[in-house]
């Protein structure tokens, strides 16, 4: 196993769009494993709604039957914001090639990511389409078209947008804790 797809994010909450991305990545012939890396705290956010330990638990449950999917606690155990470049360098110690999965909504600010010029030499970006954002031909694009985001899920909690394996638990957590975007 030499090639991985790193799929990082807040997953606050995890939703069916995340499942669709992992499914699409599994169709890439040269990707040996998908490693999902939930953040402790997204570098572009000031807070989280569900504790990282809870998001880790949900992700492990959601992807428990996918043998080529690993849920990494690398960023969570650091208990702080971790720049993507640091995570990539950590995984390059064990793998030769990394596909880095990001949502199209990140493209506009990609140049502002910590050490972006170095990062783009270390990974191949794979973009998940979002909100009809145009994606440059320089990037690989996933064939995923779920119109869902964690923010939208928190604002309009629909159980149908949550992964079946733990939909009720996720739904109840966000409803009971009034986790709406400010």
Task: Write up this protein.
This protein is an alpha/beta fold and 182 residues long. It has one domain (3-176): 3-Layer(aba) Sandwich (Rossmann fold). Helix 3 packs parallel to helix 4 (116-122). The longest helix is centred in the first third of the chain and has 11 residues, at 52-62. It has a six-stranded parallel sheet, with helices on both faces. The chain has six helices and six strands, in the order βαβαβαβαββαα.
Number of helices: 6
CATH level-4 homologous superfamily: HUPs
* First and last CA, distance: 43 Å
Strand order of the largest sheet: 3-2-1-4-5-6
Beta-strand segment tally: 6
H-E string = EHEHEHEHEEHH
The biggest beta sheet, please?
Answer: 6 strands, parallel
- Which CATH-level-2 architecture? 3-Layer(aba) Sandwich
- The CATH class: Alpha Beta
* SS content category: alpha/beta
Radius of gyration: 16 Å
Mean pLDDT: 91
**Helix fraction by DSSP (H/I, runs of at least 4):** 25-40%
Low-pLDDT ranges: none
Overall tally of domains: 1
The CATH topology corresponds to: Rossmann fold
């Amino acid at each position: 196993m030499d090639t991985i797809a790193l799929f990082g994010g807040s997953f606050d909450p995890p939703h069916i769009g995340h499942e669709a991305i992992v499914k699409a990545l599994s169709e890439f012939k040269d990707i040996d494993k998908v490693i999902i890396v939930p953040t402790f705290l997204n570098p572009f956010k000031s807070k989280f709604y569900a504790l990282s330990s809870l998001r880790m638990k949900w992700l492990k449950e959601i992807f428990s039957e996918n043998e080529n999917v690993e849920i990494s606690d690398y960023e969570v155990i650091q208990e702080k914001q971790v720049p993507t470049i640091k995570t990539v360098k950590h995984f390059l110690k064990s793998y030769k090639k990394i596909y880095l999965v990001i949502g199209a909504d990140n493209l506009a600010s990609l140049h502002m990511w910590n050490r972006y010029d170095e990062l783009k030499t270390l990974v191949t970006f794979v973009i998940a389409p979002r909100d009809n954002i145009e994606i440059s031909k320089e990037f690989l694009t996933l064939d995923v078209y779920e119109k869902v985001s964690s923010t939208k899920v928190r604002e309009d909690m629909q159980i149908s947008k949550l992964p079946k394996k733990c939909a009720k638990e996720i739904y109840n957590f966000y409803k009971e804790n009034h986790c709406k975007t400010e």
